């Protein structure tokens, strides 16, 4: 039996070694490349879900819109000597809208005003007031109400109903108002009626719709003049010897101690 030397065995192993770059499928089962790619995509989607990442939105952003038709009202009382001129002020979220005035509408005003407004998230009610427009005094608040948006409206149904009004006669005793509500979701670019005013949220009830006047600039007080010395007062008295001293003193005080202004005033008085 011929024995093989260790050097011969090593040479035989070297001849069996594959020389050159490794093939793409080295140590990989058939179809493993597709499996790895699929697993990577699944892991990436899971990571985005856990981190709160979302896919880019498809198409324009959508917004919730509420359409409110303010049709008419039946009021319990006509306040004043003549027929009232009622109009409606409506608040949705932070925005306030108004109807036109119904001249001499009295107890049965009609507006048929349709208001399209955006419905902010979390807003599920509207506030409504009826005013009597006055010519020489502030408009008088006649009635008010707080209306919860019916769930049927948010499900896409058109809701036509009469709502009770609160006022001086008591809660629910000032009359009723007819509203038609509808809800839709559409692109944010849809034009809406701009509100007449945007106000912060201040609470509930009709008091939640205040109208704040613009702040008026405060006038700076006139500069204080140095007090007039007895010598200066005597000089003024000598300039107007026929003028009563008490009158000169009063004019001086009215001009805040301004000597030149006092002299001008006394000259005008002596003419």
Protein traits:
9-stranded antiparallel sheet; alpha+beta; 271 residues; single chain; 6 helices; 25% helix
Number of helices: 6
Shape: flat
What is the alpha-carbon Rg in Å?
43 Å
What proportion of the residues form beta strands (DSSP E)?
Answer: 25-35%
Beginning-to-end CA distance, first to last residue: 156 Å
Topology, number of strands: 9
Helix content: 10-25%
Task: Give the SSE order as H and E letters.
Answer: HHEEEEEEHEEEHHH
Largest sheet: 9 strands, antiparallel
List the uncertain runs. Answer: 51-56, 201-208, 210-216
Structural class: alpha+beta
Average residue pLDDT: 75
- Strand order across the largest sheet: 4-1-8-7-6-5-2-3-9
Q: Helix and strand layout, with pairings?
A:
Layout lengths: L5 H11 L15 H20 L10 E14 L10 E7 L2 E4 L11 E9 L6 E8 L7 E9 L2 H4 L4 E9 L2 E18 L9 E2 L31 H10 L5 H10 L4 H12 L1
Antiparallel strand pairs: 1-4, 1-8, 2-3, 2-5, 3-9, 5-6, 6-7, 7-8
Helix pairs in contact: 5-6
Describe the structure.
It is built from six helices and nine strands, in the order ααββββββαβββααα. A nine-stranded antiparallel sheet has the order 4-1-8-7-6-5-2-3-9. It has 271 residues and is an alpha+beta fold. The chain is flat and about 140 Å long.
TL;DR?
This protein is an alpha+beta fold and 271 residues long. It contains 6 helices and 9 strands.
